[in-house]
Amino acid sequence: MTDVVAQPTENSPDEVSAAARGRHLVVSEVITLYALSIFCALALAGILVTVTGGSAADVFNALLDGSVRNPGRWGLTLGAAAPLLLVALGTIVSARAGLVNIGQEGQLLIGAAFATYVGTRLGGPGPVVVMGLCIAGIVGGAIWAGFAGALRYWRGVPEVLTTLLLATVAGSAVGYGLKNEWLLLAPAGDRANRNQVSEQLADDNRLPRITWFGNEFPTTVFLAIALAAATAFVLARTVPGFRLRMLGQNPRTAQRAGVGATRYGMASMLISGGFAGLAGAAMLAGGDFGNYQLVPGFSTNIGWTGLLVALVARERAVSAIVVAFVFAGLRTGSGFLAATGVERKITDVVQALLVLALLIPPAVLYIRERRRAVNASKERV
Fold first, then answer.
1. Does the N-terminal or the C-terminal CB of the chain have fewer CB atoms within 10 Å?
2. What DSSP string describes 43-82?
3. How far apart are CA 243 and CA 292, in angstroms?
C-alpha cells in the first residue's frame, strides 16, 4: 500500500478565503462610492437652495412632511410610486433585451385612453369592468410599443427614435380623442363648457382603495410590488429570462445558441409597452390622477420619471421598488415647498442630481475594470 499524498485542489481554503476577502472589499468600495455620491448630490442641492434664497433644512423638512411625515401623505406617495414602478418594470424588460424604449409616456397615455374607452362603455359587474379596462390598458400600451418594435425588426429603424416620436404622436392622438364624444370626450351634460375631459368612471368600476393608519392608497401598490417580484424571478431564474439577458448582452452569441432576436426582442417591446399601458389604466382606475377620468396632461410625466427609476435602479426590478418610492416622495413632497419660498421645480434639480449621483459609481467601476483588463493584456504580451 502506498500512501496517497493529498494534492492541493483548485479551490483551497486559502484561495477561498482570499476570494471572499476580495468580494467583501469590492462590496465595501461600491457602498462607499454610492454613499459618497449621494452625499455630494444632496450637499450640492443644499448649496443651490441656499444660493436661490431658501433654507436647505426647511426644504428637506418640507419634502419629508409632504411625502411621509404629515398625516395621509405616505399614502399619496405610495399611490404615485405604483405607476412609476410599473413603467420602470417595462423599461427593465426591454433594456435586458438590449433595446432602448424611451416612449413610455406615450405608451402610458395610449393605455389610459384604451382603459377609459372600455371602462366607460363596458357593461357588467364592477370587477369585470375593472379587469377589462386593465387588460385594455395593457393591450393599448403593447400595441403602441409594438409599432416601434415592428419598425425595428422589419425596417431597421432604431427604436430609440421611433418610441420617442410615437410618444409625441400619442399625445396628439389622445388630444384628438378628447375632442370627440364618439371616442373619449364626455357628453356635454357631464362636463363644463369647453372642458375636454372623458366621462368619469362609475363607482363600481374603480379599483379598491385601502386605508391604513389614516393613509389611503389604491390596491395597485400591491399589484406593482407583486409584478416586480415576478419580473425579478423570471429574468433571473427562468429559461426565457436567461435568453432575454443573453440577447441583450451578446446578440451574436444568443443567435448562435438559437435565441431568435426578432421573437424575443419583439416580445420584450410588447411587454414593456404593456407595463406602461397598465400603469395608465391603474392611474385612471386608482383615483390619484385625474379623479377617475382622462384629462389633458393626464400622464404628468409619470412615463419619463419611470424611465429614470429603471435607470437609477440599474435595471433591477427589486431595487426599482425603493427607487420608485423615493422619486414619488420627491413628487408628492414638492407640494409643500411653497411655504419655504422655494420653487417646486427645485425637486426636479434634486431628482436630476440623485440620478447623476447614482450613475457615477457604475461608471467609475467600469473605468477601473477596463483599465485593469487593459493592463492585464499588456502584461501577457
1. N
2. HHHHHHHHHTT--HHHHHHHHHIIIIISTTHHHHHHHHHH
3. 39
Contact 209, 219 (CB under 8 A): yes
> What pLDDT digit, counting tens, does each position of 1-50 carry?
444 444 444 555 555 454 555 455 556 777 788 888 888 888 888 888 88
CATH top class, domain 81-339: mainly alpha
Amino acid identity, residue 46? G
Q: Check residue 2 and report its DSSP letter.
A: -
Q: Which three cell numbers stand for residue 86?
A: 410599473
Write the CB contacts of 207 (distance below 8 Å, at least 6 apart in sequence).
130, 218, 219, 220, 282, 285, 286, 287
Q: Parse the chain into domains and list their residue ranges.
A: 81-339
Please state the φ and ψ torsions of residue 216, each to the nearest 5 degrees.
-115, 135
Q: Are 282 and 218 in contact (CB under 8 A)?
A: yes
Instruction: Read off the pLDDT of residues 200-240 as tens digits, 9 standing for 90 and up.
Output: 999 999 999 999 888 899 999 999 999 999 999 999 999 99
Three cell numbers written together for 111 = 393605455
pTM: 0.86
Please compute, for residue 108, the number of CA atoms within 13 A of its CA located in the half-sphere on the CB side: 33
